[in-house]
From TrEMBL:
Residues 42-138 form the Pirin N-terminal domain. Residues 1-21, 301-323 are annotated as: Disordered. InterPro entries: Pirin, Pirin_C_dom, Pirin_N_dom, RmlC-like_jellyroll, RmlC_Cupin_sf. Residues 190-293 form the Pirin C-terminal domain. Residues 1-17 have a biased composition (Basic and acidic residues). Belongs to the pirin family. Pfam families: Pirin, Pirin_C. The lineage of its organism: Bacteria, Bacillati, Actinomycetota, Actinomycetes, Kitasatosporales. This is Pirin family protein. PANTHER family: PIRIN, PIRIN-RELATED. It comes from Streptomyces boetiae.
């Protein structure tokens, strides 16, 4: 028994605040491929992950009527899942398993890289005028990171509707509705649409940490106003979240992605398109990609595959969920 115990703040896990917080994450712009420029929200200065969500890009709405749109050549992945989520446009997915699938708005394209996969993503030749969506990664826990690669496409996802709020459950569960997408850690993702002038209270799990990404319009969340392309980290310890459509330009309501999950306790090495646990994991994956082994081939893409960049001179250090 401690004779002079120190006061401790309980809740959450390790580096996760045991109380609700409001932390705005600023994006950085980067070129994805073709005419697509993305706003990268995760990893971010000061924060690498939200639950097992470890990578978030938001792009558009872009007018691509006379543009090629997204053109991402074949490239490799290990140790993660990719989530393709669209509000407008189409993305044609090809992978080394032989999958060929066009993903459309509010359909789930979920690829599990596991031990190794390669894929390409492109806007089809005949496409809609606008392209708008998000690309997200989920880190696989050590027990599942060597699993067999797989691809899932779910055209119909469960919805929850209350008043002026409609929620599409992308992964995991929200308010009793569960997505058919495969998950390997306790996590959730949902697309929340608020009608013009609507307000809502969304149920949360207090042992999850959460973040919100504004896709369109303006939304006030936990008293913070969010415009398109901004992310708000909410910490943990919340049982509910108040949202209000905040009358963005043009009206018509607003839309946000709610991302949450049990804090990811493992340290990971995330480099290029790989997630491992050591420099050796990453080096081996890069060598296998360069040698044309392990990842298979992506057939049908009209161009060369991506070459891996050079590894840094210093060893890659496994890092936790915060910088």
């Amino acid at each position: 028994m401690e004779t002079r115990p120190q006061a401790r703040e309980c809740g959450g896990r390790e580096d996760v605040p045991g109380r609700p917080v409001t932390e705005l994450l600023s994006p950085r712009e980067t070129h994805l491929g073709g005419s697509t420029v993305v706003r990268r929200l995760l990893p971010n200065l000061g924060r690498r992950m939200v639950g097992a969500w470890c990578f978030v890009d938001h792009y558009g709405p872009d007018d691509i009527a006379d543009e090629p749109g997204m053109q991402v050549p074949p490239h490799p992945h290990i140790g993660l899942q990719t989530v393709s989520w669209l509000h407008q446009g189409e993305v044609l997915h090809r992978d080394s398993l032989g999958s060929l699938q066009t993903v459309r708005p509010r359909e789930l394209g979920l690829m599990t890289a596991g031990r190794a996969i390669a894929h390409s993503e492109e806007t089809p030749r005949a496409h809609s005028r606008y392209l708008h969506g998000a690309q997200l990664w989920v880190a696989l826990p050590d027990a599942h990171r060597h699993t067999a690669p797989a691809f899932e496409h779910h055209a119909a996802l469960p919805e929850v509707a209350h008043g002026g709020l409609t929620a599409t459950v992308i992964l995991g569960e929200l308010d009793g509705a569960r997505s058919p997408g495969t998950v390997h850690t306790p996590l959730m993702g949902a697309d929340l649409t608020l009608a013009e002038g609507a307000s809502a209270r969304v149920p949360l799990q207090p042992d999850f940490e959460y973040a919100l990404l504004t896709m369109a319009g303006s939304t006030e969340a936990a008293g913070v106003r969010l415009g398109p392309g901004r992310m708000l980290y909410l910490g943990s310890g919340r049982r509910e979240l108040d949202l209000r459509e905040d009358g963005g330009p043009g009206g018509g309501g607003s839309s946000v992605l709610l991302l949450g999950g049990e804090p990811f306790a493992e340290k990971i090495v995330m480099w290029w398109n790989f997630i491992g646990r050591s420099t050796e994991d990453i080096t081996r994956a890069r060598e296998d990609w360069a040698a044309g082994t392990r990842f298979g081939e992506v057939h049908g893409y009209g161009g060369p595959r991506l070459d891996a960049p050079a590894l840094p001179a210093t060893p890659l250090k496994p890092r936790g969920r915060e910088r």
